[in-house]
Amino acid sequence: MMKRNPVHLVATSFFILWGIGELIAGRFLGVSHYVNALASFVAAGLLRLPDLFARIDFMQVPPAVHLFFTIYIFLSIFFGSILGFYELFPHWDTFLHFLSGILFSLVGLILFFSIQDKEFARQIRPVVAVLFALFFSATCGLVWEIYEFTIDSLAGMNMQRWQSNLSVAEWLALHNQSNRSNPGLIDTMWDLVAATLGSLVSIPLLGYVIRKSRSGSGELESPVESSS
């Protein structure tokens, strides 16, 4: 069993306590705090996923990647949604999509080795594992955009920034100039571009992880080896 970084346990407790506080605040200050409470509890649940995967022998998440995942949850849910960084900083969402490209590439690489036979994993060419990780990351980015589109369509939210403050006349004038003026389309494409760039930037890191996995040294040990 791999050693676990206790930071994610502290983070999980933090989100649970914060969620309880938001529930209490919602009783006196309005429904928006209930939304924050829900986000906090969702974050706490997500932080338990790596341990759940390890417990059911699905895959072992190395401590460094687990820590990266914990930081990402804080940046996206706590700072982004609860503290409102998405509204305060226009490019916060793009920055997180860039980080998600790196994170999902690492997760894809871990998943690749987790589902392979140990001997086969040692013999396979590294480029195959890297390509799997990159395509896995791209698929995750695509699925997320489908999720945003679905939520916007069913709940009337603005996750894809399709709503704007323009008047009808201004909107029609802008839209008639170019289809690329659609804010929802621009937001979606920048999200995908940022995630793709993050995946490409992660390629040297993926190579480093593979070398460490095959040598059996370093913090980022092979999930195949760790489960044996």
Write the layout of secondary structure elements.
Elements: H1 7-29, H2 32-47, H3 49-55, H4 63-82, H5 85-88, H6 92-114, H7 118-123, H8 126-155, H9 168-177, H10 183-201, H11 203-215, H12 223-226
Helix pairs in contact: 1-2, 1-4, 2-4, 4-6, 6-8, 6-10, 8-10, 8-11
* Unreliable stretches covering 5 or more consecutive residues: 218-228
Helix content: over 70%
On the 0-100 scale, what is the average pLDDT?
80
- Tell me how many strands there are: 0
In total, the number of domains comes to: 2
> What is the makeup of the main sheet?
none
In what range is the share of β-strand residues?
Answer: under 5%
SSE string, helices as H and strands as E: HHHHHHHHHHHH
What does the radius of gyration come to?
20 Å
| Approximate shape | globular
Q: Please give the alpha-carbon distance between the first and last residues.
A: 9 Å
Class based on secondary structure composition and strand pairing: mainly alpha
> Helix count?
12
Report on the structure:
The protein is mostly helical and 228 residues long. The protein folds into 2 domains: 1-84; 90-228, no CATH class. Helices cover 77% and strands 0% of the residues. The longest helix has 30 residues, at 126-155. The protein starts with 6 loop residues before the first helix and ends with a helix.
In short:
This protein is mainly alpha-helical. The chain is built from 12 helices and no strands. It folds into 2 domains: 84 residues; 139 residues, no CATH class.
Give descriptors for this structure.
mainly alpha, 2 domains, disordered C terminus, 12 helices
